[in-house]
Design brief:
about 325 residues, alpha/beta, Quinone Oxidoreductase, Chain A, domain 1, Rossmann fold, seven-stranded mixed β-sheet, 15 strands, about 30% helix, globular, binds NADPH dihydro-nicotinamide-adenine-dinucleotide phosphate
Length: about 325
């Protein structure tokens, strides 16, 4: 038996509970898995919160064990790259959506999905980073690959006090960029400055409809918000600057014009963590293990147990959770 969160749906009814499941139930639900992992830590990302609160169609199979992220130790493996005792990280691939996930003490996963845990981090740190942090790293890599360097100017980070935003600020500041953090929570300004933000701006400055071309300011943008915020960010990017878009916390729409792209050569790069190829995942995790100050990760992380994960989901969707939440699945 193992402890897990469990999502069920029948008719119009939905329930999210903590319960004991059997290994037989897990095996029956995951017939194509080839690695069994003893999960030590999972986390709550925005998508997990949506699933736990049944707020959007994240879960595509019922019943479901949620948890798009997990870190732990391989118990048994039929996959050539992994053996019992290996420490591994799982992010995405539809886990916690269409395949039973990691808000549980045990998961059966595909070896092709797993990243070997870098030697200098443990399961707790890996899940303090989680998909949010790994996505922030993918966004930084997207800017770097288009040649964005600190000498070109400031980087705007939106949704700054959230998980993606917090890790993005810490990463960019450590790489030498001048970071401007956009937040709706003025009371988190000290937190954002401690992470490395040089300036904190009110997100209201970006969230209303704006002109197609505005005063050029940003060399690059990491946007977790979408909608008017993303449109305004694009309109404020300097000639040949780059925007990495990964989120929709403010809306799924993009009410923009082509002006910044065709008149200023701005690039809008989409960042997806779920199906991201293994080569980029490995690079991202190697960089996260090396480029992120452990003290900064501690600063942004709250560790909770499985029951708290259920309680925190609506708070996260209301934009009230700061930084990252790691879940100790044995608590
Ligand atoms: P969090 O909930 O931790 O942070 C989101 C932040 O967005 C909030 O803290 C808040 O920041 C801001 N925000 C919330 N609501 C609004 C609003 N209505 N208008 C403007 N800003 C708002 O989530 P994550 O950081 O984990 O994820 C951020 C986004 O990125 C989500 O949309 C998520 O789905 C997406 N994502 C995408 C991934 C991908 O693969 N593309 C992977 C991971 C996440 P503040 O209080 O500072 O204003």
């Amino acid at each position: 038996m193992f402890d897990a969160l469990y999502l069920e749906k029948s008719g119009d009814g939905f329930s999210a509970t903590r319960r004991l499941l059997t290994d037989d139930q897990l095996a029956a639900a995951t017939p194509d898995a080839d690695v069994t992992v003893r999960i030590e830590y999972s986390t709550i990302n925005f998508k997990d919160a949506l699933a736990l609160a049944n707020r959007s169609p994240v879960v595509r199979r019922w019943p479901m064990v949620p948890g798009i992220d997990g870190a732990g130790v391989v118990e048994s493996s039929a996959h050539p790259r992994f053996a019992a005792g290996d420490r591994v990280i799982l992010n995405g691939w539809g886990v916690g959506e269409s395949h039973w996930g990691c808000l549980a003490q045990r998961a059966r996963l595909k070896g092709d999905w797993l990243v070997a845990m870098p030697a200098d981090i443990d399961a707790r740190r890996a899940m303090a980073i989680g998909t949010a942090g790994y996505t922030a790293m993918l966004c930084v890599m997207a800017l770097e690959r288009r040649g964005v360097v600190p000498a070109q100017g400031e980087i705007l980070v939106t949704g700054a006090a959230g998980g993606v935003g917090s890790v993005a600020i810490a990463l960019l500041a450590r790489l030498g960029f001048r970071v401007v953090a956009s937040t709706g929570r003025a009371n988190e300004a000290d937190y954002l400055r401690a992470l490395g933000a040089a300036e904190v701006i009110d997100r209201a400055a970006l969230s209303a409809p704006g002109k197609p071309l505005q005063k050029e300011r940003w060399a690059g943008v990491i946007d977790a918000v979408g909608s008017h915020t993303l449109a305004n960010a694009c309109a404020q990017v300097r000639y040949r600057g780059t925007v990495a878009a990964c989120g929709l916390a403010g809306g799924m729409d993009l009410p923009a014009t082509v002006a910044p792209f065709i008149l200023r050569g701005v690039a809008l790069i989409g960042v997806d963590s779920v199906m991201c190829p293994m080569e980029d995942r490995r690079e991202a995790w190697k960089r996260l293990a090396g480029d992120l100050d452990p003290a900064q990760i501690e600063r942004i992380t709250t560790v909770v147990g499985l029951d708290d994960a259920l309680r925190l989901a609506p708070e996260m969707l209301a934009g009230k959770v700061r930084g990252r939440v790691a879940v100790d699945v044995n608590r």
